[in-house]
Structure of Phosphoglycerate mutase-like protein:
Amino acid sequence: MAPVIDIIRHAESYHNLFGPHVRDPGITPIGGEQDCAALRKKYPYADDVIFIIASPMRRCIETALKGIAPLLDEGQGIISLLPDLQEVNASPSGTGSPLSRIIDMYGEENIEKATVPEDWYLKGPDTRNAPDPAKVQARARSARHSIRNATRIAARHNPDAHTVVVTHGEFAHWLTDDFAGMTNTRNSAWWNCEVRSYRFADLENRDDDDDATLIEIDTPASLERRDSYLPAADTEERKRLQKQIAVLHVLGHGRMADMWAGQELEENA
């Protein structure tokens, strides 16, 4: 066997209910907590988890802390923050919080922050996180490289290791290079707390210029389950069209970025 990467979309968050005006929202106390409880029940690989890697946004950290970390032995549920996994858009709900505030909220004992700058969340046009298709694609590729590096380390401890990655629904499409289910009105086909499992096409490749391609594996029957509601991506033409739709969504986020910039940002409790 080879190490597995389990990619998870975050649990229900305040912005899923009330829209994009809330800055860096956490998960909701009803739907979000229920999503995490369901994730704890259905996730079967806890004994093999070596790393939990998450977007530094609150909803992803909380999903990791409440949905996966409780399944692990004491001291193993530390969340490694990876800014490349953050949300695509630049709305208040798509914009994170300073590292110091994250640490204040969740505690240094729960967070691995060594490579995260204080202003990791900035999304201006001159930053790597701006809602621009080329930058989103580059960020997804960089995230895959970071995850692959961690997975190689995990494999030294356990050849069947699982690396858990918690990110956002839209970015998950870019991370996996699979845009099935996107439409002009729907920017993600990932459900809250949905788990999809992958392996790297070449785990040992250390070339910084390769794509670090992920290949989805049918664990457990996730591909078959989605056949009923996702448009098939069975030809190159369909794959190109699906990605073009994803690009249009990012371009729309880019046009909205100026509107969001400088606005007064609310925060949920």
Observations:
- The helical segments are 14-18, 31-42, 58-68, 99-106, 133-157, 169-176, 222-226, 236-260.
- Confidence is low (pLDDT under 50) at residues 264-269.
- The radius of gyration is 17 Å.
